[in-house]
Design goal:
The structure is a homodimer of 357-residue chains. Chain A is of the alpha/beta class and 357 residues long. Chain A starts with 8 loop residues before the first strand and ends with a helix. Chains A and B meet through helix 8, helix 9 and helix 10 of A and helix 8, helix 9 and helix 10 of B.
């Protein structure tokens, strides 16, 4: 943890993402200047230095940490990372593990980032499966956190309790909410709705007092509801994210095609462009920043593979908020509280059985 | 089936939906006039007659079929429909079963419509679980059919094969596609992606020659892909639909709020309104019409509970297309072909074992 006066260092995987190292180094410098933090650029030193020379970086504390292994496209990230100990994403994770950086930022595949974080940092005690926390833009201003955004397929119901605890800590730490409202993704709001998975998860969430479980949420609540956290299986999370993305793309393209019809509509489109840009900005992943790998015993932010410098700058903002809001410490605490709350339920169950004898 | 010169009759549940009987009867008359079909209005005769008197209906063949039982709000539809044999939705379904109407249209809960259809019409031979087919608006013009839109929770993988056959028949019958492209909803396009359910369903779909299985689809493909049919579990379908709906609502409201900021933006908004209305029209459920209950041994269209007269008119269009496109006959045929195709695979497997001995 960063003490009051200690400079925050962010380890940035300079080699990951479609536009690495150029956009990554550029965005990292922008973010370091904007948020007044130190940089730990991880990757091929010569390539990083070439990029650094392109940008004014006086006044920014920059370290370069060598990492020469490269993970090829098409390699399974988990297999590759077991073999290539010095891949930049693995080295960035170890900088966090060893306390040399307060958080890491990497662009690219979430699978690779999760594998690197698991192998080199490990899980928070009491968390079986770390998950991807995606902060979604909403109408109410404050984002709604989706957890799991796609790390775990075939989740078991009891993992929803762990995700609820992690999401609770995220919204407390990042947004200062005293008592985040946690929902379970389901097909209807009433208790008893949904599939077997949801029914079991509902019971477990309802029985746990470590966080505020407010009941079932629906797909639309990711964007227009008043839940702070919505927990779901990674499969369902991925479907929800990509369906919404498809709808937004279609909406935008339809509007554009109607505005491009003739001279008059083109003029209207030109006049409406600033307003449309504001909507786009609100929805855009560049603005939203990166997703946190929740349940990992360190602050790890994963940005889109196609990240521009601006996206990296925003991912740094997310990482720095995570550090300053002590999201890690909060996750550790609430996970233990949640385990104790569960144990309590199990214990009373056992007691009842003993009394029954 | 409607022979060449026989008049098509549509049984309309006049009592179902939030704005029944007023909007329903109004929309039914509009639809009957527009598409030149006969009406079989099912419900309370006096209430229907009151509505009929409000609208010019000369030249339209109208029958009134009495149905006096009412299903109360909050009653479980399945339980209520077992008891109340003369609920309007049940009587409408029996009109189809008895050949007195070629299709039925009902507004309200899909659960009630599915229960009424199952109890009074039954399933197509070879179909274990009928499903909801939702035709989604896309960028390519032609809709993409989602099946299952939410009828079945906890579907087993082999049901995806039945849904694929039903979806194939729908797109052939409704849109004249010779070889509809069927996808499986998953988290990525490559084979081997996803949860256990998807992996098993993929193998079964790939092994069946009764339809063209084109591989995995993703959430965004509902709106911007080039699949004709996407099969999924009802839970995942519901999540995808409602997430996309939430995104569309947010997009529209954000745009509106930016356009309402000041006098200038309001003027731009006024100028842009016709284009925005066209996008809304494209996405709106009033335009899209109703969902077909696929796998039921009759053409049943369920419209939104909040259906206006226009929504009912569009649901009638869907029902009439279903009748004229012989979707029912096509579903019966491809379901048998699909069963035979599966048997074929099992048979060669057994043969191999016998040869091996």
């Amino acid at each position: 943890l960063a003490s009051e006066n200690e400079r925050i260092y962010i380890a940035v995987d300079a080699m990951g993402g479609d536009f690495a190292p150029h956009e990554i180094v550029k965005g990292a410098i922008q973010g370091a200047r904007k948020y007044n933090v130190g940089l730990d650029l991880v990757g091929h030193p010569d390539k990083i230095r070439v990029e650094l020379e392109k940008h004014a970086n006086q006044g920014i504390e920059i370290r370069i940490t060598e990492a020469l292994d490269e993970v090829d496209m098409g390699e399974s990230p988990v297999v590759a990372l077991r073999r290539k100990k010095n891949a930049s994403i693995a080295v960035a994770a170890r900088q966090v593990k060893q306390g040399k950086a307060h958080a890491m930022v990497a662009a690219g595949s979430t699978g690779a980032a999760m594998a690197a974080a698991l192998l080199n940092i490990g899980r928070i005690k009491g968390i079986e499966r770390p998950a991807i926390g995606v902060a979604l833009p909403t109408l109410r201003g404050l984002p709604t956190l989706m957890i799991d955004g796609g790390a775990n397929m075939d989740s078991e119901p009891h993992l929803m309790v762990q995700f609820a605890a992690l999401g609770h800590a995220y919204m407390q730490g990042m947004h200062g909410l005293p008592r985040p409202k946690v929902g379970l993704l389901n097909v209807g709001s009433e208790k008893g709705k949904g599939n077997t998975f949801c029914k079991e998860a509902f019971e477990l969430l309802e029985a746990n007092s470590a966080f505020y479980f407010a009941g079932n949420a629906e797909g639309r609540d990711f964007f227009i509801g008043d839940f702070d956290v919505i927990v779901c299986d990674g499969f369902a999370g991925n479907i929800a994210l990509k369906s919404a993305e498809g709808m937004a793309t279609m909406f935008g393209k339809l509007l554009k095609s109607h505005l491009m019809k003739n001279g008059w509509t083109k003029l209207v489109g030109l006049l409406a462009k600033p307003m449309l840009d504001k909507v786009k900005h609100h929805l855009d992943h560049e603005y939203v920043g990166g997703a946190l790998l929740l349940g990992i015993d360190g602050i790890c932010v994963i940005a889109h593979g196609g990240s521009s410098a601006l996206a990296i700058e925003n991912a740094m903002r997310v990482a720095i908020s995570g550090v300053k809001g002590n999201v890690l410490g909060k996750m550790q605490v609430v996970t233990q509280e949640s385990l104790n709350a569960s144990t309590h339920v199990v214990a009373s169950g056992q007691e009842a059985v003993l009394t029954g004898e």
